[in-house]
C-alpha cells in the first residue's frame, strides 16, 4: 500500500493479545482507511513465549522489556494488554515518549492511577498524542446502533437501565487461582473485569453518567488451588492453596445524573451463562434489550407502534446501514467477538488521521473507575449510598 | 355430585374477582377432589354492579355488605379480592366467624395489620379454621417444578437469584390515577403489587428467606388525571389531577439467610414488557430461568451435563409428570394465567380435606410484608442495609 | 340469567370431550353473549364411564345412545367429539332433527362422507339449522390477528407459506396401537389429525385455497402392541400386536389458487416437539411466523419499516384490541389451549343469535378433506401433482 | 515462520473473494498448522479492479488471466471464487497443472461439468493433487458438532430432516438483474445457490445421501432492471429490463438411502429472513435444530432425558471441546460467518500435510449436483418422483 503506515507495539500476549492481534491484522483489509498499520513488535517478559507469540500472531519483532518496545522507532501506537496494575506506568511512559496509546480496561486498578493517566492523556492530547481506553463493547454494532436510537430520541425520557454481565467460569471451586483473582494484580474481580464493561456500555448508550450508587459484593469461594498456567489462568505460580482477594460477584443500583435509575449485576458464578453481557433500557418512548451471547441482534420496542402491532423487534444488526456493517458481509451473516476490536481500531485510526481525540478517552475510563470505587465503598459501608 | 360441597363467598369483583371466579368454576371439573365447591355469594358495595357480577361470573347470590356475606350459612370459605387496606378487617372477622379464608396479596398494607392477621390465623388454625395468602405464582407449574428441582438439589448451593417483574401500563403519563396509585388504599405501588410476587416466588423456589436488603424506589410520574373508572383503574373519582403517593418502581438487593445473594426489580414503566415476571437462579450445580410471558416454559441448565452438551433446556412444563399437569391436556398444549388460581384453590381444598395448613400461610405473607417494609425503610434512609 | 339458554348435547368424552366441556362451561362467563348455554347431556356407549364423565365435566344428564341424545328436547346444539368414522352419520341425523351441529375435525374420514355432510348442512342452513367444523386453531388469537393483518394487506402479495405440525408422541415404538392409528376409525394418521389443522389454518390466514399438491407419506413403525386404554390411547382392545394402517407423517407442497407456494409437514415423530403447530407466511410486504407452543405470540415483520429498524416483532397477542382479548385478562397474561374452543363456541353462539352461518362451514371442512385426499392420491402415485 | 509455506492463487474477488481472503489471512494465525500459506496472487479480468482488490485484501500480486495465475510458480493452491459457468474449465486446468484446488459451490452448473471435474479430481488425487468443494456450512462449529452427535448415535434412527434456506434480497422487484439470476452464468437460482448448501449440510450431518426427490420451483418476478453493479449485483450490464431465467425459490422433499424423509425449501423471497439457513433433524433418540442467523447455537433434544427434564438445549457451541473452538476465544464469545471458511482452509491444509483427500470432495459436489438436477427434472415433469 502506498498510504501511510503506523507501527503498532503491543504489550501482553494472552487472551487480549490474541484478540487484538487478529483485529490489527484485519482492520486495514476490511475498512478502507486513510492510514495503514503494521504489526511492528510485541512485548512480554518471557523471551521464548513472546517470540512464539510473535510468530503465531504475525508480529515482526518481539521485545522482553516494555520500555524498549515503546522506544522503538517503528512503533507509533502502543497497545496495552497487560493486567491492570501495570497500565498506569506503561501508558504514562508511552505517552511521554510521544506514542499514541490504546489501553485495555479497566483503565487502572485504582482511582489514583486512573487520575494520573487521564491527566497525562489530557496534556499529551494537546500536543497531538492520542489515547483511548478499550471498552470494546461500545463497538458491538448492535450497541452502537442502540446508542444511535437513544441519541435520536427513540426511547424518549429514560426510566430504567437493567444491566448484567454473567459468566460462570469460576463456579467450580477447583478452578485455579490466577492473577484475575488477586487484588494486587487485578484491583478487583468481577467488578473491574466485567462490571466495568456494563457501566461503560450503559453510560455510553444512555449518553449520561451515574451520579451515585449503592452496592454489595460477594466472594463465594474464598481460596483456590495455586497454578502455573497461562492465559486466562496465568497464576502467581507454585502449589498449594491461595486466598481469593477479589469479589466473585458485584451487584449495585444507581441513578443517572439527568434522571433514570439503573441496576447492575456482574458475576463469574451464573452457572450456564457463558458471556452474557446484557443491557436493557426502558424510556417513555420505547425499550431496548441486548445480550452479547446473541451479539448480532438488538431487541427494540418502538413505543409509537399501535398497541396491537407492538412487540420487541429482533433486529439483525447486519444491514449495510448499521454501524460498521457497510464494510462487512451481506445481511444475516453474523460477525464475531473479535470484530468489536477491529471496529475499535478502525475508529482509533480514523481519529488519528483526523487529529481528533478517540473515544472513550482516559477521562471516560477514569469516570468508570470512580463508579467502581463508589460501589466498593458502598459495599464496605453497609451498602449505603455513595456519590460518584 | 355426592361429595361434600363447600360454599364460597368472594368479596370484590374487579380483575381479581373475575379470575378467581373462573378458577372456582373450574377447579372441581379438572381436578378429582374429595370436596366440591359451590359459588355461593359474591360481595360488593354497589348493588347493581355486584348483581351484574354475580350473573356474569356464576355466583348464586350477591351481598352488598361483606359482614353479611361472611355470616351466611352457605359460605364456608371466604375469598378476599379487595384492595389491601380492607384485608385485615375482613380476614380477621371471617376467621372469627369460623370461615376458612383465602386472601389476595399483599397480605396487608402494613406490617402491623399483617401481624394481626397472622396471629389470628395461627389461633384459628388450632381449631381447624384454615387460611392462605394467594401468591398465585407459586402455582405456575413451571415455578412449582423449579421448586422441586431446587429441593432435589439440582442447582446445588445457591449463589444468585435475579428477579424482576416488569410491566409498562403506567408509562403513559395520562393514564388515570386509581386506587393502585394511592398509598392509603394500596399501601405501596410496584413494591406491594408486584415486587411482593417476586419476593415470595424467590423465597419459595429457593426454600429460604431474605435476611436483609438495600433498596431504592422511584415515582416517575408524580401526578395523574383523576378518573372514575373501574377494575384496574377504579379511582377515587372526581375530575382534575391527583398526586401519585406510591412508588412506580422499586429496586433492591439482599441476602438469603442460608447464603446466596439476590437482586429484585419491579416496575410499571418497562416499555414493551407487559407482564414479565422473571426469575433466575444460579447455584453450584445448575441454573434456572423463567419468564411468565412464556409461563409454560422453564429454562434449566443442568451443570452435570458434559461441557459440550450443556445448555439451557427449554422445558415445556406440560408433561403429565409436571406439577398439576396430570389433570390437564396432552404435552405441548399451553395453560393460561387463570389456572395458577385453579391450582391454588385445588391445593387449598386438598389441605381442607386433609386438615392441614395450606401454604403459603398468613405467616408467610407477613414475612414478605417484612421484606417490603425493609426495602421501604432502606429507600428512605439512603439505601443503607436493613435487616428483615 | 334471563337470556335465552340453549342446551348442548355432546357426543364423546375423551380428550376432546374434556376440552369442549371446559369451553362450554366458560363461554358465557367470559363473553357477554345474547344467548346462554346449558350443558344438557353427554353421550357415550359405556354407561358407567359416561355417567362419570357427566359428573366430572358438569353435564346434567348422560345418554348411552347418541340417537337418544340428539332427540332430547333440551338439546338444541349437538357437539360431536367422536372418532371420524362416526361423524357423518351423527351430524346428518342431528341436522335432520333440527339441531345445530358443531363437528370435530377432520370433518369425515372420506371425501364422500364429507360431501354428504356438506350437502346436508347447506340444505339445513336454508331452514336456519346451523353447522360448523371445529378447526379451533382459527380461534387462536394470534392466528385470528394474523388473518386480520393479511386481510389488511400487511404482507402484500403472497409468496410463501411454510407450515408444520410436529408432535412426538408416537416416536416410542412401544406406544400402543389406538383408534388413531387405524384407518377404518381415523381415516388417516398425521394427515387427517394434524395436517388437517395446518391446511385449514394456512387457507384461513391466507384467505385462499390450495389448487394442487404433491405429497409423500410415511409409516415409520408398522405395528404396535394392542391395548385397552382410554382417551388418546383408546385402542381396539385385546393383547398382542396390531398393524398401523395410517401414516405417521405426511409431507407435501402445493400452490394457492391466486398465487403463492406452500409446504406442509405433519408428523408424530419429531422428537422433542410436543405440539408445535407452526405457520410462516412471506409476502411482498411482510412476514409472519407462529408456533402454537408459544400460542400467545405472533412474530410479525413489517416490510415497510426502514431496513435498519426492521425485525420480526414478538407481538404478545394479549392486548384488548386483539381478537377475543377484550373479554380476558390484562396484557401479558397468557391464555391457554382450551380457550381456542371457548372462542369457537362464542363465535358459534353469536352466529346462531344473528342467524348467520358460522365459519368454518362443513363446506370448508369438505374442501380441507379434498386437499388431504389429493395428498394421499399423490403419495400413492409417485408424488405426482394432483389437482384439488 | 520456518514452516513450509504454500502460495495461494485466488480467482474472483467479489463477495466470496473478500471472505476467502479474510480466511486465508487468518488461518495460520489462529490454528497451529504444519504448513503455512501465502496470499500469492489474485486473478480477475479487470486490471484496475483486480489490482485494487489485491491491495485491499492483501494479495502480493494480481493477474488478469486465470491461466497465467494457475501457471505461477508461487501458486500451489488455486482457490476458485468465480460464477459457476467457469468452475469446470478452471478447476480441470489447475488440477492438470498440478495445483491443489478449492472450488466454490455449486461445483458446476451442470451434472456433465461436475462429472468431468470429479473425474479429473479422482485421477489427480492418485498423484497427490488434492481438491475440495467449498461447502463452508459443514465448518460451522454447531453443524460439525451436530454431525458428531449424529455419528455418535445420539439421535438414533433418523426419521425426519427439515431444512430451509431463507433469504429476502430479491423480494423488491426493482432489485437489478445480475449474473445470479441468469441461467447461463449461474446454472440455477435459489436451487444452486442456497438449496445446494442445505442439501449438502443435511447429507453431511445425517451421514447419508438422498435417493430420490419430488420438487417444484417458482420465479415470482419474471423480469428485472438491468444494471452494471458489482459484487452480489454484478450484472450483465446495460440498461432496460432483462428476463430472470432462474428460480427464485425451490421446494422439494426426498428420501434418504438408508431411511428417513426430508423436506427442503430455498428462497430469496422470505421477507424478514436474511440468511436463515436452517436444519432440523429428528430421530428415535433425539432432535436437533439449527439456524445460521444464530450460528453459535445448536438446539439439542436428548431423548434419553427424563420426560419432565427434557427440552431443547440451547448449546452455545463455543466450548474448547467443540469442533474448531480450541483455537478461538473463551466460552460465550461468538464466532462470525467468515470463520466457516477459516475452518475449511484449516482442514484443507491439514489434509494436504497428511496426504489425504480433503472433504467434501468433487465427488461429493457432483452428488449434490445430481440431487439438484433431479429436483429440476421433477419440477419440470409435474413434480413426479425422480431418483437421484
TrEMBL record, chains A, B, C, D:
UniProt keyword annotations, A-Z: Oxidoreductase
A Pfam entry, by short name: GFO_IDH_MocA
Domain of life of the source: Bacteria
Record has Oxidoreductase as a keyword: yes
InterPro entries attached to this UniProt entry: Gfo/Idh/MocA-like_OxRdtase_N, Gfo/Idh/MocA_oxidrdct_glycsds, GFO_IDH_MocA-like_dom, NAD(P)-bd_dom_sf
Domain GFO/IDH/MocA-like oxidoreductase: 145-289
SUPFAM superfamilies the record matches: Glyceraldehyde-3-phosphate dehydrogenase-like, C-terminal domain (SSF55347), NAD(P)-binding Rossmann-fold domains (SSF51735)
Domain Gfo/Idh/MocA-like oxidoreductase N-terminal: 7-124
Protein name per Swiss-Prot or TrEMBL: Gfo/Idh/MocA family oxidoreductase
Organism: Cryptosporangium minutisporangium
Amino acid at each position: 500500500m502506498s498510504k501511510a503506515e503506523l507501527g503498532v507495539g503491543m504489550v501482553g500476549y494472552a487472551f487480549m493479545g490474541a484478540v487484538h492481534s487478529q483485529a490489527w491484522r484485519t482492520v486495514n483489509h476490511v475498512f478502507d482507511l486513510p492510514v495503514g498499520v503494521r504489526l511492528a513488535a510485541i512485548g512480554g517478559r518471557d523471551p521464548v513465549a513472546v517470540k512464539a507469540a510473535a510468530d503465531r500472531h504475525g508480529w515482526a519483532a518481539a521485545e522482553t522489556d516494555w520500555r524498549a518496545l515503546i522506544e522503538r522507532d517503528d512503533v507509533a501506537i502502543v497497545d496495552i494488554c497487560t493486567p491492570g496494575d501495570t497500565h498506569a506506568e506503561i501508558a504514562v511512559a508511552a505517552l511521554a515518549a510521544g506514542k499514541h496509546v490504546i489501553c485495555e480496561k479497566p483503565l487502572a486498578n485504582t482511582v489514583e492511577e486512573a487520575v494520573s493517566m487521564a491527566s497525562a492523556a489530557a496534556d499529551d492530547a494537546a500536543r497531538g498524542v492520542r489515547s483511548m481506553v478499550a471498552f470494546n463493547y461500545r463497538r458491538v454494532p448492535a450497541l452502537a446502533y442502540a446508542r444511535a436510537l437513544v441519541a435520536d430520541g427513540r426511547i424518549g425520557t429514560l426510566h430504567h437501565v437493567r444491566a448484567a454481565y454473567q459468566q460462570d467460569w469460576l463456579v467450580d471451586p477447583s478452578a485455579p487461582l490466577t492473577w484475575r483473582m488477586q487484588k494486587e494484580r487485578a484491583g478487583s474481580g468481577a467488578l473491574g473485569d466485567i462490571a466495568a464493561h456494563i457501566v461503560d456500555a450503559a453510560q455510553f448508550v444512555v449518553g449520561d453518567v451515574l451520579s451515585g450508587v449503592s452496592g454489595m459484593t460477594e466472594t463465594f469461594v474464598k481460596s483456590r488451588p495455586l497454578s502455573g498456567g497461562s492465559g486466562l489462568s496465568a497464576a502467581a505460580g507454585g502449589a498449594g492453596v491461595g486466598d481469593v482477594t477479589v469479589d466473585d460477584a458485584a451487584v449495585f443500583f444507581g441513578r443517572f445524573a439527568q434522571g433514570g435509575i439503573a441496576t447492575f449485576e456482574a458475576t463469574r458464578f451464573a452457572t450456564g451463562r457463558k458471556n452474557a453481557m446484557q443491557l436493557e433500557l426502558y424510556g417513555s418512548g420505547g425499550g431496548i434489550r441486548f445480550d452479547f451471547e446473541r451479539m448480532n441482534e438488538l431487541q427494540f420496542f418502538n413505543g409509537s407502534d399501535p398497541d396491537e402491532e407492538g412487540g420487541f423487534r429482533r433486529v439483525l444488526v447486519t444491514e449495510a446501514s448499521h454501524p460498521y456493517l457497510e464494510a462487512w458481509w451481506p445481511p444475516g451473516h453474523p460477525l464475531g467477538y473479535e470484530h468489536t476490536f477491529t471496529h475499535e481500531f478502525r475508529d482509533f485510526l480514523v481519529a488519528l488521521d483526523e487529529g481528533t481525540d478517540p473515544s472513550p478517552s482516559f477521562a471516560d475510563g477514569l469516570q468508570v473507575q470512580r463508579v467502581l470505587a463508589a460501589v466498593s465503598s458502598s459495599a464496605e459501608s453497609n451498602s449505603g449510598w455513595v456519590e460518584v
